[in-house]
């Protein structure tokens, strides 16, 4: 008998929960699927999603004729969206989440709470972040 596979819908739910910070065992319990299926979906996501996403983004950047580095810096501190996701990640456990719909609702609520002022502050501090990254020779610095 071959590997048991989960459908695209369950795979999307798995990835969403994983990105929201749920553990593999927590996702398996939440979606009532095996730990191995969750792990395989996450591995598949890690192996394929970044490649597709980066190629799409690179294509759009090239169309806009924006200069870009051959490869990104090693530091995640230059990605301000990671800072925003970190804030949302800390806020999510403040209320109980029992279903996918509740997770989606809570994510949307927390996303809506992110202020323009915070986003602007993160963008405004980018020159300082770049300077710190250069001093750290491209490594993690915060």
From TrEMBL:
- Tc1-like transposase DDE domain mapped to chain residues: 42-104
What is the protein name for this chain?
A: Tc1-like transposase DDE domain-containing protein
Query: What terms describe the molecular function in GO for this protein?
Result: nucleic acid binding
Upper classification of the source organism reads: Eukaryota, Metazoa, Spiralia, Gnathifera, Rotifera
- UniProt-listed InterPro entries: Homeodomain-like_sf (IPR009057), RNaseH_sf (IPR036397), Tc1-like_DDE_dom (IPR038717)
């Amino acid at each position: 008998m071959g590997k048991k596979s989960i459908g695209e819908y369950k795979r999307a739910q798995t990835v969403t929960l994983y990105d929201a910070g749920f553990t593999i065992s927590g996702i398996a319990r939440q979606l009532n699927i095996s730990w191995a299926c969750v792990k395989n979906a996450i591995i598949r996501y890690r192996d394929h999603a970044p490649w597709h996403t980066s190629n799409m983004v690179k294509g759009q950047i090239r169309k806009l004729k924006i200069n870009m580095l051959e490869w990104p810096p090693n530091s995640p501190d230059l990605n301000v969206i990671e800072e925003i996701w970190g804030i949302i990640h800390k806020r999510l456990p403040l209320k109980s989440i029992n279903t996918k719909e509740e997770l989606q609702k809570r994510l949307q609520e927390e996303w809506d709470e992110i202020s323009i002022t915070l986003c602007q502050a993160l963008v405004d501090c980018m020159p300082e972040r770049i300077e710190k990254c250069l001093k750290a020779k491209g490594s993690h610095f915060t």
